[in-house]
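note to self: the first set is below, dont mix up w the second
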Amino acid sequence: MKKIITLSTILALTVFSSLLALPVQADVTPAPNPTLEDACGLDIALVLDVSGSIGGDLGTLQTAAKGFVDAFLPSTPTLMGLVSFSSSATIVRDLTSDATDLKGAIDALSSGGSTNWKDALIKGTSLLEGGLDRDDTDHPDLLVMFSDGLPNVNPLDDSITAANQAKMSTSSLPIRIVAVGVGSASTSTLVSISGPIVSPPAAVTKDTDVIMSNFDDLATTLGNLANALCDDANGCVDCDHGPDIVINDNEGAAINLVSAEANTGGNYAGGSYGGDGGDGGDMKNGNEEEGGDIEDSSTGAGGNGGSSGEGGAVITGDASSTAGALNVVNTNYTDIDRCACQEENCCEDECCCDLDLVRNRNRAIAFNGVRARANTGENMADGSYAGYGGEGGKMKNEGNDIEGSHTGTGGTGGNSGPGGYVETGRSDARAFGVNIVNTNITRIRR
């Protein structure tokens, strides 16, 4: 038997499908979204929709969410927790500053199930009011919820009621909600749990309530949100709330006394001594029985003394002496970065965006007394000695009277050689004094 579908049936189905796509009219009045106070570091609940409709776009959502984490951690003193929701919600990670752990938890998410906004908002509120929540006056609470559709587990009124409970929290400061819509999300429905300021068309600021995006632009959308929150609420980037004043008063005096002296020492090389003259020759006379006295006889002449040599040459080495003094006085390096506030309570007493005052006062006297001296010491080399002259020859008498006789000439003394050489080693001395006085490095990072 054929089934007949009439035109009226088709129209009825079309109207029914359209009604399912529209947000359900709510009877609960949304509470105003509280203002996010300026502070150095937030407590953020990151609430992600992983219902079945996310499907193949889950990877895009995960990448964008991890970029959102990186925008705050570890560069700011923010704590962030993770809630995932589909048919029900789960607190995946409590508030933490461990970006690696958070991103690992985001990567482990899987999609499937329905969309339960009510439970997502309740679990996000519970995370922000749990035991790890810090003082809201120093670290305001922010709930950022991503969804690609409409709540289909509970009536919309239940979700608005849960959102109102967060926005009117009885803690020191209420929780602000930012809703990010992707895919087929309804702007008006997201406004009902957050607030009326929608981007686009409005620019993303810390006062934005709803951000509409698509999966392709989701990473950019979250980046804009992170920048807006960090710039305005977290006081970490381009903060114009107060001037930075750095005063460096430096007084320094450097006195250097430098003396350098080079001396190759005492050097002496004596000339050689002349040789002694040779002795005259001996003459031997016989006795009276053998010839008697020989008058007016003389011995031969003594040999000539040897000539003395020249004094030895003295060759001294190079003498080099260097002395110097270097003073670096009163060097100041100041770096102010308002985004590197790492400690949890780094801005407890003064907001990061208040006045930064750095004052360095330096007084220094640097005194250097430097003396360098090089000396090769005493050096001496004597010349050689000349040889002695040879003895005169001998003459022998046999008794005859030989007048005017004499002995042979003595030998000539040997010549002396040149004096010895003196070569001194190289003399090298260096002295140096360095003073680095009053170096200041000041860094203010937020």
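second set (the one i keep forgetting abt)
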Amino acid sequence: MPIKVLIVDDEIDTCRMFALGLKVAGLQTEYALSGTQALSNIHNAHPNAIVLDLMMPDLDGYEVTRRLRADPATANIPIFVVTATADPNAEADCMEAGATRFIRKPIHIKELAEIIKKSVE
């Protein structure tokens, strides 16, 4: 059964880039262009993992992570926050919110795919 990844980022080009790279690595992908859209669609998408941007205009990655962790149906899905933020507290804040892993951009898609695969095995 293929690993399904939900990519959440408000930049369509970033979603497409991650989706293409992860598909090449053998993963199945869907994306949401906002935190609100991700939370609305999460139960239909049934992802095995989530790649989440931190800086989004509606709900930021911290709030999305907190809400996913608070819902028993999504509490155990690995969440990989991938961000370009320069905030020195971002990693600690993400981990406190419940992220599985904090990854600073740039990241090679192949490396991201391997991290996701290892977390879902």
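remember for set 2: The chain has one domain: 4-120.
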